[in-house]
Design a protein that fits this description.
Blueprint lengths: L5 H24 L2 H44 L14 E6 L4 E3 L9 E10 L9 E9 L6 E8 L1 H6 L1 E4 L2 E9 L14 E10 L6 E8 L4
Antiparallel strand pairs: 1-3, 2-3, 3-7, 4-5, 4-8, 6-7, 8-9
């Protein structure tokens, strides 16, 4: 049997010790500590997100309450509502899927976009409202958005746009595509974006909504 010199045996043990130490450090770096740090970070981010959502909810609630007070004062009904009753307050506006681009002259190219607009209260119910409504149709497929048509309704015109059909009450708004007049089919966008903005007559921030519509559908 061969016997290794003492010096050589010692040199063989050093790399082995280093390997064991490296493995220990690797295991420590990938161990529960890292997972704990990741979980802590995720919990912190979730908490921050929840706090932001809560703050937005509180802000909306304060806005609704302020509008309710103003509405009650304006109508002279302050203090006359039973406990728990909350008058409807305009807080949003939407458009539904029944709106569409329309070919009015039968040439195969759409001439206007017809919108069905719904002011909404704090319980997401349709709320007949007074105000000025601006509707625009844009082509967003180009580097610079292009306004293809615009309609503005003052309070009287907006009131006249009110309809009540089989789907319920709504406001019908039409936006002629004046910028596309005379443009051949190959040079027209396939989709357009309608944006409505309702400025309440009682004041407050404008309420907006947008929806995408196909153009020149076959």
């Amino acid at each position: 049997m061969r016997t290794e010199p003492a010096g050589r045996r010692s040199s063989l043990r050093v790399p082995a010790a280093l390997a064991v130490g490296s493995a220990t450090l690797f295991a420590w770096g990938c161990g529960p500590g890292n997972f704990a740090n990741t979980n802590d970070r995720l919990r912190r981010e979730n908490l921050e997100l929840q706090q932001s959502v809560d703050e937005l909810s509180r802000r909306l609630e304060r806005e609704v309450q302020a509008q309710e007070v103003l509405l009650a004062r304006a109508s002279g009904a302050a203090g006359s509502l039973p406990e728990g009753a909350r008058p409807p307050v305009l807080v949003g506006v939407t458009m539904d899927r029944y709106g569409a681009a329309v070919d009015e002259n039968g040439d195969g190219l759409d001439d206007l976009v017809r919108l069905y607009v719904y002011p909404r209260d704090q319980q997401d119910r349709m709320l007949p409202s007074a105000g000025t409504l601006t509707a625009r149709v844009l082509d967003l497929s180009t580097p610079e958005p292009t306004v293809l048509g615009r309609t503005e309704l003052d309070p009287a015109a907006f009131d006249a746009a009110y309809r009540d059909g089989f789907t319920g009450p709504y406001y019908r708004v039409e936006v002629p595509l004046t910028a596309l007049a005379g443009r051949p089919a190959g040079q027209r966008p396939r989709e357009v974006t309608a944006i409505v903005s309702l400025a309440p007559a009682v004041g407050g921030p404008a309420l907006t909504a947008q929806r995408v519509f196909e153009l020149d559908r076959e």
